[in-house]
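Progress narrative, Year 2. Work on dolichyl-phosphooligosaccharide-protein glycotransferase from Halobaculum saliterrae advanced from sequence curation to structure prediction during this period.
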Amino acid sequence: MVTARDVSDLLDERPDLEPAIDAVLEPEGPWTFDDVDVDSGALGELVSRGIVTKTDDGYVVADHAATRRALAGEVSEQTVEPVRDLDVSLPSLPNPRVLAALAGALAVVFALRITTFPAVFQEEVVLTANDPYFYRYWVERMLTDPETTLTTVPGGIAKGEPLLVATLWFVSSLLGGSTGVTGQVFAWYPVVSALVTGVLVYRLTVEVTDDRRVGIAAVVFMGTVAGHGLRTSLGFADHHAFDYVWLLLTALGATVVVRDAIDAQPLASVRTLAATAAVAVGVAGQTLAWDAGPLLVVPLGILVAADAIAAVYTDRDPLRSGGPLVAASALAAGVVWVAHSSFGWHTTLVAVSPVLLTIGGLGVVLAGTLARRVELPAAGVAGVTLVGAIAGAFAFSRLAPEQWARVTRSFDTRLVRTDAIAETTGLFGESGGWLLLVGLLLFIGVPYLLWATYHLREDDRWLVPVVYTWYFLALAVVQVRFVGQLGPFLAVFGGLAFVHLAERVDVARPPTPFGGDPVRDIGTPDRQTVFAVAALFVLLGAFGAAQVPLKNAQLVHSQEQYETASWMSDHAAEHDLEYPQSYVFSFWPDNRHYNYFVNGESRSYGYARTNYASFVASTDPAGWYDRLGDRAGYVVVTPDTVGNESQLGTRLYREHGSRANGTAGVARYRLQYVSDDETYKVFTLVPGAVLRGTATPNATVTVETTVEVEGARFAYTRQTTANANGAYTVRVAHPGTYSVGNGNVTVNESAVRTGSTVRVNAST
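Result:
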């Protein structure tokens, strides 16, 4: 039944409908469209809101009295509390327009995440980047072992990302466990993560702002963060996408707990208990998902401290919000310890991190509760908290020196390290890098982050997004990999900025945090409003949205690269090459990709990362052949390996190992394949046949043959000098008929593969 409040809310949203409501109140009984002076659009809106209903006899006003009271302004001041439950199922959404808008926002996220589709779905599922093949290796290995259980997660992953690998293994096995199924699971899981994260961002934003428009805008802006988009793009099956779900689940649960405390909701309410459980699941999942997961749990500890200070400042009980958060940490600590002790997951240091969080959180909450009772000011609580944190760190370093040493070592080697890996550079380390990874969201979101931080004194509902955004902004400044965690939280402020700016240009009502009424429904905008909102998004979000597919494209393996890997795979199978004779030596960012398809050993790229750059820059091909002879079967070179003319990378890629421009050819590197676009060239390591003959003493001897391989035809030339007796030897990497002086000599395949000597006749 429609109420006066419903009609009043509609008029607040659409004051232009007041004449239409007056018109439909005039008829005493049922009426038709032609009986009233109302256009079809206005009538449709009134019907959709339930103010007018259609019967067999015509249209009628659902409740004349309630509608007239609304027009007269006689509406009770008591308002319906906005829906703030954790349920994100369809019944919790107030009307189809909100559902459609949220679906549209998620569609934007989805569309920006699947731009890699053609590169991922080739003849096989070709994952993007390098690291996803590490997890694919372990999952497929587990699937081939029928004895695999959670307790038998391989040691190589049990101390790294056990929950991620166990989850992917479990889902893949449920769906059949074939290589094709596993590839599909790996390809789509990041996209699913992005959509789930989007829903959690929406719920968190609405929980804080009471404005569904801001929530929907936040989801769209999250979709435009390239630093988040590339890590949740189709095929990028790294651990990051898995982390985001646990992180946002924790933040959403904490937001509900804090909000319920502010609103003085019963501590044992279903809503608060569900939120507490969400925090517990989130913390446990985050810790078990990644060996650096405790780093993502730190903001929860900061939040507990900030909440205690805010509670004392606003004179509310710190135990009301801090208690559930500490209880959730304790539950998570129990789950993590069971997984550690029963399954062997993670090191002791990682396993005890939720315990440390619980102890620290309990101390802060008790300190805040005591401070409130003795009327200690909030500044005093902040001081006590800081001293307690320093004392706790000192005590930990003394009581567990080995674990403390691991903490400091991990900080140095993982957080503040500087190396050639792009994700370890700082957000502002490259000119304009922040703009490409975050877009204008950083520019428009940070001012509203500052506003929310300042207004925490008046409205501490903002505690969770403020704490988490500042924390991950600080981490992103150190390493850009954390832009993925920053994006969803900064998007909350981006959504608020968007709706606020829309209000400033008269295309929206004020957002709730800026004095507007709680927005639970979304009206149907007219064409002018649609165009204005779209233009505003183009201005603020289009640049970031354009960067997402561009960044995603940098991760893909092209069709030519995949075909190169396929050729090596076929060649290895044809010649019965087993690992490591089939190992592919390449630039390290592509190394796992090649080795997955060629020999299945994509566990590590360490050898390539350590040696490949030195290899292509070397001027000693024979020395590197000796080093690689028992370690690799294939060498891949690309235009990136070209340096000066004497370097091995240049001699292989540009000259195909042949003598050219006064630079000697190479004898043990045999070009076998060139991709259609000539970007990828594959060499095999061979002993090479030795041509032995005689010529004029001290004469220069040149041998040459024409080589045809898949994708290339070229002249292969070697040159040597006869000794004082006229004897010479020269090693060649290709079979074929060589011209030597005025004659020819034939080198067969066997001679090249075994390093045999081929005699050059004196007449030749």
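The chain has three domains: 4-71, 90-550, 611-759. Residues 4-71 form one domain.
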